[in-house]
Design a protein that fits this description.
Blueprint (H helix, E strand, L loop, with lengths): L1 H32 L1 H17 L6 H5 L4 E5 L7 E7 L8 E8 L6 H4 L14 E2 L6 E6 L1 E9 L7 E9 L4 H21 L25 E2 L14 H6 L4 E4 L8 E7 L5 E8 L1 H17 L10 E7 L7 E7 L15 H19 L2 E5 L4
Antiparallel strand pairs: 1-2, 2-3, 3-7, 4-5, 5-6, 6-7, 8-9, 9-10, 10-11, 11-13, 12-13, 12-14
């Protein structure tokens, strides 16, 4: 009996040892094959940005399937995260996402979007398209902003920002647009913001205004400058017979139109801002506009207006600036015409308001 008991104990020890050995071998295989790293990376993506990160367009945006995510400083945001491509070389890159409520104070970094509107076409943004309230722009990196107005709380919107630190081909931009729209939609649902979404993003076009080939006669404008066609004779007398325009879009939170000189230099810039974009624009530039020094180099060569819109309690803002050419350190339009500026921004604002169901367009007075 004692011998049998001792044999059973020995066999049990063998089984336990064999089991531990098998576990060790399995763990080694998983580690050496990269399966464990892949599992960790997948978990990091699932947890990123408080679980709101949409992963559908990540591979297209970063040109790799090896992805990992990490949280970043979000003291100024609802949440923020970074997705890093695991590959090395020129195709590797990263994508940084930040989410915030428009009802909170805008971080200084987001206001930088709005303080270059009078420097040529630097402040331009193209509509994201597909029915989304979003824009794409370039300022050292490719950036997408999506601002979903909360239908159940018109005083705020969920705003999502994405910066792409990677190659800038069309596939990457479309991937960025898909990640940002789907993340914004997912976050809105998570945080109780009932918002209207667009269609799945299948193509995102980069903003290209400012190049000579983007100019056309103002009389032929069909997009964001269409409102100014009737002013073409007056615009020509003011030195800007040409137009540089984006496609018409009644959802983008920013719309821009540029009037250009005969030698294709942007001379006037017109901007429309809605909802969260309007609020942040005023946080950046409102004091200057109201103080009478909102134009180039603190001058009064601008005109602006506001309107009430149904999507948000925030009034829309429409601005015209005489533009400065930083490359030549000159004004393509040598002399600003206040009369033309006022008539142009009024026509622009009236047209935009009709497209969005906005009312009560008011020209703002300047000191």
């Amino acid at each position: 009996m004692q011998i049998n008991s001792r044999l059973r104990r020995i066999r049990t020890g063998w089984y336990v040892g064999a089991f531990v050995l098998v576990l060790g071998v399995v763990a080694q295989v998983l580690y050496s094959s990269g399966a464990y790293d892949a599992w960790q990376n997948d978990r990091s993506l699932d947890r990123a940005c408080d679980g709101t990160l949409a992963q559908g367009g990540l591979q297209s945006a970063l040109h790799t399937s090896r992805l990992r995510a990490s949280q970043v400083d979000n003291r100024d945001y609802l949440t923020a995260c970074r997705v890093q491509g695991g590959d090395s070389g020129p195709q590797s890159g990263s994508l940084e996402l930040k989410l915030r409520w428009s009802s909170t104070a805008p971080p200084a970094g987001t206001l930088a979007w709005y303080n270059q509107d009078y420097d040529g076409t630097t402040g331009q943004a193209a509509p994201l398209g597909s029915g989304w309230p979003g824009i794409v722009r370039h300022d050292e990196t490719w950036q997408v902003m999506v601002a979903l107005d909360c239908q159940n709380e018109r005083s705020k919107a969920l705003v999502a920002y994405g910066d792409l630190y990677a190659s800038d081909d069309g596939t990457a931009l479309t991937g960025l647009g898909r990640v940002m729209t789907e993340t914004a939609q997912k976050a809105a649902a998570k945080y109780g913001c009932r918002a209207k979404a667009g269609k799945p993003v299948t193509q995102v076009s980069a903003p290209t205004l400012g190049k000579p080939e983007s100019a056309k006669p103002l009389t032929e404008a069909q997009g964001s400058c269409a409102a100014l066609r009737e002013l073409a004779p007056t615009a020509a007398k003011s030195g800007t017979p040409e137009a540089m325009e984006s496609p018409a879009d009644a959802h983008a939170p920013q719309v821009n139109c540029y009037l250009a000189t005969p030698d294709k230099k942007p001379g006037y810039g017109l901007y429309a801002y809605y909802g969260a974009a309007a609020k942040d624009f005023l946080a950046s530039e409102g004091r200057h506009l109201k103080g009478g020094y909102g134009g180039t180099q603190g001058e009064d060569d601008y005109a602006w207006a506001t309107a009430k819109c149904p999507q948000s309690t925030q009034s829309a803002v429409f601005v015209l600036y005489r533009l400065f050419d930083g490359d030549t350190d000159t004004y393509p339009v040598p002399h600003y015409s206040g009369k033309f500026g006022t008539s142009a921004v009024k026509a622009f604002a009236d047209h935009e308001a009709r497209q969005r169901g906005c009312t009560d367009v008011q020209m703002a007075s300047q000191p």
